[in-house]
Amino acid sequence: MGETFQAPRGFHDILGSDLKKFRKITSTVRDLLRRYNFEEIITPVVEFAKVFERSIGEATDIVGKEMFVFPDRKGRLLALRPEGTAGVVRAYIQNKLYALRPYHKLFYEGPMFRYERPQTGRYRQFHQIGAEVFGIADPHADAELLKLVSDILSELNIEAVLEINSLGCKVCRPAYREALLEFLQGVAPNLCKDCIDRKERNPLRVLDCKVQTCQEAVREAPKMVDFLCDDCRKHYEKLKEYLKALEVPFRENYNLVRGLDYYTRTVFEAVSPKLGSAIIAGGRYDYLVEEFGGPPTPALGFAVGVERLMLLVEEPQRDYELFFVIPFGEVHAYALKVADTLRKKGKVVEFSYRRGGLKKQLEFADKIRADYAVIIGEDELKEGVVTLKDMRTGEQKKVKPEEI
RNA sequence: GAGGGUGUAGCUCAGCUGGUAGAGCGGGGGACUGUGGAUCCCCAUGUCGCGGGUUCGAGUCCCGUCACCCUCCCCA
Which CATH number fits domain A322-403: 3.40.50.800, 3.30.559.10, 3.30.70.100, 3.30.450.20? Predict the structure, then answer.
């Protein structure tokens, strides 16, 4: 053997039963998105780095230390997309979709890239399916999107808790931030090292620190819900009302904040108790389109972490029958024709390419879990039939190929 | 970026205080050249992750390096 290669750290091949889970997840989500009438959009995997810096926020870890950034030949900085929303927003504006219709519902699916340390459910190349709604300010949209998230979880039979919160808007968030900051200054001596740092960068994040002493220090902290302006409060109350009407179970988590800067009002996460991390997450970003040079457009969306769901779903059963055609003796031409006939009828057929006794071939039929063995020997050739053996029951009978 | 663990056959792993590799599973063949999922027999593979060091001698000890796993930061 010569030199061998390995995929770079955090990059993985997806095959076998993992791929079956992968497809089960993406096809289930796609089918649900279709029922909610979302339209697919494919955006580039590469964007100008600025697209992400401006949307996600320069101070976030995603932009600050997790992006794959590289210069093109003219020295402009490009980046592998670390998430899907920024590119879709860019495309929405560049294609002037806002001029076509009052609102749009789009979804995307594809690989995302973050330069970080791999661990459970976390890779440098991972996959998301995400949905974005542009142009609807009404909490109907929030409720529907959350219903969709809950549909995904139940269709895939995944246990998760849907947590929601409101982060307010331009009107009310600054006052809250101020109050929180003031509170945090007061308890600063009790905060962990990370939180001292967080306090400056993203004070909201201190709220969901896992360190015991921080949780205690923050217990009496002011809550965003108490600072929501009238509009935000109504929006949030309506959303909860709709969720109840839709019978979507949810839990309010006043400490739920998101790491991306663009969120406003509704934020949510589907948290898996088994993984202890979010598997689907999203929220509203009512200012992002405008900040990107488009018309003021309320918007919201979510992203599904495919690899994380893969840790939680069962491998799907094969949903078709497999026929294994076994030529026995000098009957290959006839056997190939039989296989062809079956395939023309839509059957899934594996032809036995190997030599050896019938026994070996049937063993192989077992190995590939064939449902039927189609045995073809000299006798069958003469009679123009095949022996169809049900591998489960062992029963077999001679039939004409076209009758299978 | 920080901390911890692990790298031996295709897979899961064993290999005691250093004396130059092993089991199960899987794979191939056979008992059984027109009948599988049972049983039995036979066979095979390894630069012991890579590089260096200590030693008469290293899978075993030391250093470095790479990869993987787990945790933190952060996130889907």
Answer: 3.40.50.800
